[in-house]
Amino acid sequence: MQEKIIILDFGSQTTQLIGRRVRELNTYCEIVPYNKFPHGDESVIGVILSGSPFSVYDEKAFRTDLSSIWGRLPILGICYGAQFIAYTNGGKVEPAGSREYGRARLEYVDESDPLLRDIRPGSQVWMSHGDTITGISDKFEIIASTADVPVAAYRSKEEKVWGVQFHPEVYHSECGTQLLSNFVKGICGSKCDWNAASFIESTVAALKEQIGDDKVVLGLSGGVDSSVAAVLLNKAIGKNLTCIFVDHGMLRKDEFSDVMRDYEGLGLNVIGVDASAKFFKELAGVTDPEKKRKIIGKGFIDVFDEEAHKLTDVKWLGQGTIYPDCIESLSITGTTIKSHHNVGGLPEKMNLRLCEPLRLLFKDEVRAVGRQLGMPEHLISRHPFPGPGLAVRILGDITPEKVAVLQEADAIFIQGLRDHGLYDSVWQAGVILLPVQSVGVMGDERTYERAVALRAVTSTDAMTADWARLPYDFLAEVSNKIINKVKGVNRVTYDISSKPPSTIEWE
After folding, report:
1. CATH for 399-494, among 3.40.50.300, 3.30.300.10, 2.60.40.2470, 1.20.1050.10?
2. What's the pLDDT tens digit per position in 347-361?
3. pTM for the complete prediction?
């Protein structure tokens, strides 16, 4: 039985980062809603309570009953989690005099406490809260303080329960990895034996048991997620897997033929469908980003459904859904950020059961699994590419002509990154076709042509991203090539916004 840490999600934007840090410690973890603890699961070895956008004293604040795990499992509360534990055990939480946000230094550290082992006074931590613990009951004792936060960390005197008001999961907390390691390894006793190889072994066994001799159909996108999902399923069920690759006309230049060749080399049974004419017709005149996503999502479903119905005895739908897809589609607070056409909806229409072998993995973990499966590196290291393709990189209406322009510009940019050894240092990159024209001069003639924006970001999980600091000389070279070689473009810009507040894609 795979041991695990349970992370109770109270709605923080950094909950997923907690999960990533735990996974980096070669320990499996699952993120579940704050009120959905898996009672009866004997594989749970510890519990972490996340942050939250609420105050613990708000009427709408998320609350949970910890009585069934209190004293039985080690518990670590982070930010809101720490405030919740303190507040519900006789402590006091009040609005801070001023918002406590940013870097701080631990002035007092109880170095004898197992949570703070090898953490010294002066260590930098990251604060992000509007409330603060102003008092704890006599059940607890303070184990760390900063100049402005007296209760930076505390522990129960009797049980294996800790709380920290800073965020060990973010990189700015210099001691964060050590603290989480102290909790996961030292306090919870994790064997730290979860890795790509063990994931493949357990997942293949689970897929064989789950699917048996049934047939599965899977929609391929050309990206690493669906490709790894396909190879993993193929390892489990072999010939009972059929893949469908739909070309909606908004793939990257030559991508359909290139990817089909790659899939053939992987031994996958793939049906390729060119449905570009259908999509261009349905997208004609549509400018609203969400409508574009919905049209493409529905169109994909319709084409996929039509092809899948040509197959016989299919009972399962395979998808390459990964964890950030689920998080961004619908957060615990019920807020939709953007639509993902690969999350939900399809099985109901097709009357198929859903199989998502990568659902709980982050992108870098998917890549690690792909490498362990022996997939070619150029497939594994491909930048993420949105399901709607270049449609969400064309602001305004979609036409075949605009797509052709964007494909050419994008190909120059991506090849340039490869040629200059920059591709692997960037998480995601692409070109945006802007809905404006600008005045230019070529030779002795005035031009009035399109402007494009280059977008390149660094990230680890797509939940947050920073703009990539690409060399000026490289940007100048790419700009020159695009303007000279892509007819209809006379201006190139570079997007230097980060996520948040921007998203990685423009739509």
Report:
1. 3.30.300.10
2. 556 678 889 999 888
3. 0.74
